[in-house]
Specification:
Blueprint lengths: L2 E7 L2 H16 L3 E7 L4 H10 L6 E2 L9 H19 L3 E5 L3 H12 L4 E4 L14 H11 L2 E4 L2 H9 L7 E3 L3 H9 L9 H5 L6 E6 L8 H15 L4 E6 L4 H11 L5 E4 L4 H10 L2 E4 L4 H7 L4 E3 L7 H6 L2 E3 L4 H13 L1 H8 L10 H12 L12
Parallel strand pairs: 1-2, 1-4, 2-3, 4-5, 5-6, 6-7, 8-9, 8-11, 9-10, 11-12, 12-13
Length: 381
Amino acid sequence: MKVKVLTVFGTRPEAIKMAPLVKELQKREEIECKVLVTAQHRQMLDSVLDIFDITPDFDLNIMQHGQTITDITSRVMYGCQEVFKSYKPEIVLVHGDTTTTFAASLAAFYEKIPVGHVEAGLRSDNIYSPYPEEMNRRLTGRLASYHFAPTIANRENLVKENVSRRDILVTGNTVIDALLSVVNDNYKFENEMLNTIDFNEKKVILLTCHRRENWGEPMNNIFKACNELVLDNPDVHLIFPMHMNPIVRDSAHEFMGNNDRISLIEPLDYEPFANLMSKVYMIMTDSGGIQEEGPALGKPVMVLRTETERPEAVEAGTVKVVGVDPDKIYRVGMRLVQDSSYYESIANAVNPYGDGKASSRIADHILFKFGISNKEVDEFK
């Protein structure tokens, strides 16, 4: 008899991190794995499904123009309820901190279906940063029965919140599994401009910036600092794949659009983005996952947020939290660009987030918990 596992995700970051787990679960003869996508983000989600050759079994297709967090929450809950009632999974797996994750977990709780939380236990300790992700993650942690924590520190966060150690498995992060499966030294970009850049001669900076809490003056300050950094270093080129949100794009054009060594390009699918990360000199980002991916590729990461839910990277020295103050962004950026010993100390620090085996640990643990295997899983150290 097979264990019925339903994976649920709705955004590009979730899809990237769940894809290797879906593929691993589908390989297991003892598991019946089906995929439900909410399409909280439609286009960006579909591109990842194509890369990893995943065909959803259920598609809620909830995305609407101008959708609010409340809209997403209610539509995900109603849609998941119908699928849960008809398919009757024995466990629902969700990922991380999105509204899809929280709403699907609550819907599963209402149907008395155990929830497995992949990438559990991250905390920024500020409920409004990142917003609404920090609270989504905390609430999902209260609803989950199985907690798949990427690191030991994530496990300890959960223990402090009275989650039993026996319900937590330290796995490493599935994003490393995904990343290592798509990076190719000989990769050619569809965007020909990227193929013309000499990544060996130029110090190329990859910028990503889209967080809701950075909209307005913080984002303007980030872009101003980036523009000054590039102007003052002739060997630096900056690439910014712009988020589709017009707030982000308008600000980028206003403060960086007249610099011929800053390339404002359209968003990249996961595979070209991962390969771009592997080629650049350093990364500046307000994203969460890139704080794990960049160090796995030996790239220093400047975090454009005032706090991070990934303190292990700060402690390991693979990332530097610089916040949104333009003077600090410029100062740390200048040091990374001009001080080779400082750069190497960060680039060569050991990534604390995984070894590429997180998905297999999760699959093995499910089989153990459901009594199909009698072998306990060795945790990621």
